[in-house]
């Protein structure tokens, strides 16, 4: 399908963080391709691994979040295809990486866990039926997450004027006012 996923253009707090990003929800993309029993998945891959990603042939073959460090990709956000139809009321964005409970290694269901590094990542949507993939979007452009900055790397903020500077400036300003008053008094 010609649709290219992208980070939401809406002004959102936390649109891109150190472990998550907000994708615009595709609408009307799968209409005409999906049946009532189909599901839409989001494939997430490191940008340099997206070309090697192979669509799974069944739900049992879906790469899991826990495999991301070695497989360099996973699939998440399994959603009924009807939720992406033109008529479906749905939130305008999908948060990728928002489920912190995914760190539990025993969890087997498709997980939407925090992304482990700044990336960059690429994503695509995949429509799957009971017999495997039916349609897919194109890969997104690379999405780079924010990087945390070490406190030692921050430059110190210059301190404001010290107390002595403020006192001296006040005295000089007062002396200037007294001098101006004396000059005006002598002329008048």
TrEMBL record:
This protein is called UPK3B protein
Chain ranges passing through the membrane:
164-187
Species the sequence originates in: Urocynchramus pylzowi
State the PANTHER family in the record. Answer: UROPLAKIN III, UROPLAKIN-3B
**Highest lineage ranks of the organism?**
Eukaryota, Metazoa, Chordata, Craniata, Vertebrata
Per the record, its GO cellular-component terms are:
membrane
Keyword terms? Membrane, Transmembrane, Transmembrane helix
């Amino acid at each position: 399908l010609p649709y290219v996923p992208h980070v939401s253009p809406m002004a959102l707090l936390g649109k891109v963080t150190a472990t998550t990003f907000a994708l615009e929800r595709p609408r009307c993309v799968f209409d005409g391709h999906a049946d009532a029993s189909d599901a839409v998945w989001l494939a997430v891959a490191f940008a340099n691994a997206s070309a090697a990603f192979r669509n799974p042939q069944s739900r049992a073959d879906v790469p899991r979040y826990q495999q991301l460090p070695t497989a360099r990709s996973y699939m998440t956000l399994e959603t009924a295809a009807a939720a992406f139809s033109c008529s479906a009321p749905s939130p305008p964005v999908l948060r990728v990486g928002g489920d912190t409970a995914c760190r539990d290694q025993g969890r087997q269901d498709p997980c939407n866990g925090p992304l482990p590094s700044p990336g960059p990542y690429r994503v695509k949507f995949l429509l799957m039926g009971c017999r495997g993939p039916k349609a897919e979007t194109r890969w997104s452009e690379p999405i780079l997450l924010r990087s945390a900055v070490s406190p030692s790397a921050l430059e110190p903020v210059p301190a404001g004027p010290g107390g002595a500077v403020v006192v001296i400036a006040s005295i000089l300003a007062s002396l200037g006012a007294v001098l101006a008053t004396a000059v005006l008094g002598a002329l008048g």
